[in-house]
Amino acid sequence: MRHNVEGRKLKRTASHRRALLRALTVSLLRHKRIRTTEAKAKEARRFAEAIITRAKNAYLAEKAGSATNIHARRVVARDINDAAVLKELFSEIAQKVAERPGGYTRVVKLGQRIGDGARVAILELVDYNTERDDNAVRSRAKRMLSRAERVARSRAKQAELEAKQSQAAAPVAEAAAETEPTAEAAPEMEQAAAEAPTVETPAAEAPAAETGEASAEGEPTKE
To answer: What CATH number should be reported for the domain holding residue 106?
Structure first.
């Protein structure tokens, strides 16, 4: 049983586990922020902070006037196999965390991952988080500005559409107003219609009476 045994195995052998922590630490020092599972982030945090502490102590000793600590660089180089990251660690990163007594990294929990349900977290360097916060503020301001621009653009388009509709309806209203008689012309038109002479049409004669008379005249009388 592994009672009171410190650390996590991460379901890996010792060599595989150390290779994983080395890779996570190199990615953290290069990108200043990585996203992984919560268990890996906590183990990588312990591994990375020990390396950063060694680099910081070497930087402070060199700053105090001692010679370059070659031994510290060789020890760190066993785990950091990237020359560019190693150089940045002993110069820029060590200088930035020189006044901080530990706690160089932070684990931010993100909840469970969709799919396998693993707990995900972000491992980041604390002193480099301010730049990312500024970028986040700028991106948020940009999003808010773009949203305001979209609203203003949609309102302008709506106003333009309403103006076009009103312009299209204006000639129709004018034509309807011209065809309808005005209040002054209406009595005159009624008076003219009243004064117009009516045409009398003669009533049609009854055809039955005419036929009766014709038959009476045409037939001879019998004596």
So the answer is: 3.90.1030.10
